[in-house]
Amino acid sequence: MIAQVVDEANVPSLKCTEVNEESENNNEQKAALAEIKQRNEDLLLLEEAVAKVNALHEHLNFIVHVQNAVTDRIDKNISEAAEYSEMTAKHLDEALRLKYEEREVDEFVKS
Q1: For the CA atoms of the chain, what is the radius of gyration?
Q2: Which of 36, 39, 77, 89 has its CA 20 to 30 A from that of 103?
Q3: Which pLDDT value is given to residue 95?
Q4: Contacts of 12 (CB under 8 A, 6+ apart)
């Protein structure tokens, strides 16, 4: 009689309920596993991206270091060129002065 009432009420049996719960748990586990795999892939991609950024940083650091030495050399060369220009101007002034003095002496001797 109870079995008839249960069958007529369409109440699932305990065995059926357990299978459904296991199926739901299995689906949840599969979903969780899929999410974990996706996160793992994302982390691997992130790790690869960070490694690339690190390599770029090291390369840029090297370039800056090399360029700093070149910049220092350029600065030194500019300073030396300015000093040489000043010395050249002084030497030209001295050469012109000596040239005029020589002309004066030549004119004096000729007269």
Answers
A1: 47
A2: 89
A3: 93
A4: 20
